[in-house]
Structure formats: structure tokens, C-alpha cells
Amino acid sequence: MKKILSPWGLLAAGLLLYPIIFSDPFYRDIGAAFLLAAVSASAWNIVGGYAGQVSVGHSMFFGLGAYMPLLFYTLWGWSPIAGIPAGILLSIALALVIGMPTFRLRGHYFSMATIAVAELIRIFFGTWNLVGAAIGLQGPATARAWWDLTFRSELPYYYIFLAVLGILLYVTFAIEHRRFGFYLRAIKASERAARSLGVPVRQTKMKALALSAAFTSAAGSLYAIKTGFIDPDSGFGILVSVQMVIVAALGGAGTLFGPLVGALILVPLQTAANTWFGGGGSGLTFILYGGVIVLIARFEPGGLFELWHRLAPRRWRRARAA
Amino acid sequence: MVLVQVIVGGLLLGAIYALFSSGLTLIWGMMNFINFAHGEFVMLGMYVALLVVVWLGGGPALFSIAAALALFALGVAIYLSLIRHVIRGPMLAQILSSFGLALLLRYTAFWIFSANFVSLPQTSLAGTLNVGGIFLPIAQLVAGAVAITLTIALHLLLTRTTVGSRLLAVAEDRNAAMLMGIRPDRMQALAWGLSAGAAGVAGALLATAYPWSPSVGETFGLIAFVVVALGGFGSVLGSMYAGLIIGLIQAVSAFWLGAIYKDIVVYGLFVALLWLRPQGLMGKA
Prior knowledge:
Chain A has helices at residues 7-21, 25-50, 59-76, 83-102, 109-127, 155-176, 179-189, 191-196, 201-227, 232-236, 238-251, 258-277, 281-299, 303-311, 314-321, and strands at residues 137-138, 229-230. By secondary structure, chain A is mainly alpha-helical. Chain B has a two-stranded antiparallel ribbon. Chain B has one domain (2-116, 136-276): ABC transporter involved in vitamin B12 uptake, BtuC, CATH 1.10.3470. Helix content of chain B is 77%, strand content 3%. Chains A and B meet through helix 4, helix 5, helix 11 and helix 13 of A and helix 3, helix 4, helix 9 and helix 11 of B.
């Protein structure tokens, strides 16, 4: 009983019941957007948070995952589901290709390489006619059967996203408690020290990137299937990567629930900004994003999680740790 | 003849690439910090030029100096208020700080100036020069020449003057420099000023010859990465050669393959470089 009443049990119950309590499509849509942001940021978190390898080009995996289902549908009329594993495999392959040269080096190289590769792919897809060039691709307008994953209601999407988030959080939780997770944190703390203690540094970083890429790709697929449309900017754009980083960093990079907390704050904030400021709001939203990122970096690089740890009364913390 | 013109045009643009990239490499070499907002400094330099022309009616000399001073001040202010505090923090904080700054500057510019392309009204540098059948816009010629001169000046400042020695001393070993009576904070603030100032002048020079919008910052920032990766991290002279080479490659690939492919070629080259020779042409491993 005590376990179910813990904050995280309440959170899980809240997420399960949310679309039933708020049946308005507008709120369900916000809920789905929140889950998607949480999935993307949690996926980024594996390599960016736990391993401390800050990728600012994760949109390349997101975009591949988003394009593949719609490409399979456009080319051969297959169900978008068939494209999801293809996107995941391609993303893992791309992760290996990027990781091999850049993980030899430390520091900022990885960040720079990821941003350049994402940009390269974005421009490339924008000129490639097979994938719709600058216009992009569209999914099925009306569903032929359930396996087209094209639903009128937001509800099925919401629960699919929630299921993926659940799986991802479980995987992350499992990593945290295994040798692999300790390796990751050792690398983040000091790569040199980790290597001298026998941690297979490059291999571990590679695995983390591949795992992260796979889940980011899945997030992209979910996005494309729900939206039914993808173009180079919404798939590979730099802001897609930025959102993952900021959501994770705001909540607390390298913590299990950090990305969830970040998404819980940022997604409603973004929706509110768009509603208040109207069409011109997107620009202001990014000013806000930039400001939030700078403030996190300057004052609270550990994110809200660390802030909570410092400020919360000790007995609360102990209760949470128990 | 057309090809010669393309090559000369590429080298003139490359000279400006060299100038703003030398600013990026200075910060990178000195404090092992990658400034993701560097392209935004170039973009701001362009708008400073526009504002000076529109409000004060100044000419190229005036607005270039104004852009340099304004960005120098901004660079110092950013170092003192933000970078100084994150530089010894976790790497995530370092990357986030300049990345967030880039977003903040880019979208503030979008908000103020709108996303439309603008260009300077006719300056005193209008007209073209005909050199043996090659037509050179005077604005490009002057901008390229000034950019190369300033890049060399920055190189000489670092290698031939006391201030340069102090800057390099701080880069080499912060604590040892402190024991020698150098104030690292001042030197690093100066480096940020010089870096942003170089980007600002480069922006003003670009503004004389090319139209722009707030989104150019992203493009120029990426080009600066490529130039620095090619020239070697921390080497001003290296980034000068690399800037010219990148300008040339861009112009020639735009000429042969079409304008959209010039960025693909340049970013592809960057990825290949990170694969094959991550320390750059003139950098140390």
C-alpha cells in the first residue's frame, strides 16, 4: 500500500487516468505531446544524461524514425508500422557510424559532430525527391484498418505513447542498477579514471548511443504516425534536438524521472505561450527556451532534481530514498 | 574565365570566413570551449551595420568599427555574466550555456527584425571593377581585403605582442599564469571580446556585399566549425588558410553541382574530417 501511494505511483495513476478525466481533445492532445516529449528526452537522457555525451543532433534519429513509416506507406502502401523497425535499425547503424570516429575524442567533439551530421541529413533530405524533398511525406489520410494506426480519437495515441514511455523508463531503470549503468556514470564523472579502472569506455559509449538512437527513432515514428505528415524541418530540424536537451536538462539530466519533470513543465508552458501569443508565438517560445537553457546552465546545471535535493527537508528526501 | 571569377569570388568570401572563424578558434584554443553562439555574433554584426546606416547614415568604415566595438562589448559582457561561471562546471552546463545563448540571440533577432531578408542600402562601395575580363564587385573586394588584413593582425597580436603572450600564457596554464601576475579573468574576457569583435566586423563586412536574415547565424556558425576543424583548433593562421579553402570549395561546388549542394559538400567534408583527421590540418593531436 505504501508503495502505491509513493509520489511515482501517484504519477503513474495520474498518467493513466488523465485522458479519461480530461476528455476534451485539446487536453488529450497536450497529454500526447507531453508523453512524446518525455519519450524523446528520456531516450536522449541515456547517452546525454547518464553517459554525459551531450548530443545536440539527436533529431537525426528522430527524423529517420519519422520518415521511415511514411516512406514505406508512400512507396509501397505498406502499413506505417512496418517502417518503425526499419527506422530503428537505420538509426542504430547511423549511431555506430557517428560514434566510431567521435568517441575516440573527448569533450565537445561529439556535440559538434552530431549537430553537423543532423544538419547534413536535413539538407540532404530537403533535396532528395524520393523522400518528398522540401515538401515532405504524408501518411494515410483515412485508415484502411487498425494497423494503419490512423485514429480519429487522441485516445489510442495517448496510450501507445504511454506504453512506450513505460518501456523506456523500465529500461532506463534497469540500466541504472546494472554494471552498464555504473560504467556510464563513471565515464561521465571522469573518462580517464574510468578507463584506468578497466571500463571499456568506447564500447560503453557506443552501446549507450545505439540504445538512445533506437528509442529516439521510435519516438520519431510515433510522432509521424500521429501527425500523419513529416518534412525535413519537423524531422531533422535543430529545434527538435534542442527540445530533447532542454526537457532533460530542466528536469535533471542523468536522472530517471528528470525528463518527465522537464516535459511536465515545458510542454504546457509551450502550449500556453502559443495560445497567448498566437501565430507569432513560436518565435517567443524559442526566446523563452533559450532563456531557460541559459538560466539552467548558469545557476542549476543539475536541473530541478538537484535543486529539490538541496532544498527539500531532509526527512522528505529520506522517505523518497527508502 | 567564368571559373576564374567563381574562384576569386570564393576566395573573397573565404577571407571573411577566415576572419570570423579565427574568433571561434581563439576561444576554443584558449579555454577549450566551443561557442555555439558564434554564428549569432556574425549575424548581430550585420544588423549593427544596418542600424548604423539607417539611423546615423554612416558609411562602411563607420559601421564596421561600430560593429566591432558593439560585439566586443557584448563578448566581454557575456563572458563576465555567463561563461565565467560555467567554464569550470560540468560539460553539460558549458554546452547548454552557449547553445541557449544562440537560441536567445537568434530568435530575439527574429522577433525584432522579422524573418525577411534585408540588405544594406547602396554604400559608397557600389560598382564593379573589371580586371582583365573578371568582374569584381568593389564591396566584395574591399571586404575580402579588410578581412584578411584583420585576420593577420589578430595572428600578429597573439604571437608578437605582450598582450598576446599573456593570452597564450593563460591558455597554456591558468595557474602558472596567475603566479606570473597575469589576471586570467581579464585575459579571458579580452579573448571573448576579441572573438566576438572579429565576428562582428566580419558580419559588417558581409553586410556590404550580401543580403541576410536572422537565420544566417546558424549557417555561419556551422561554417566556422568546419573551418576550425580543418585549420586545427586554436590556430588563427590555420583557420585563415582553412577559411580560404572552404570559401573556394563552396564556390566551386555551387558552380559545378548547383547552389543547394554547396552546403552538403561543406558539411560532408566536415564529417569526413572528423572521421579521418580530427585534429585538423595544422592542429596537434
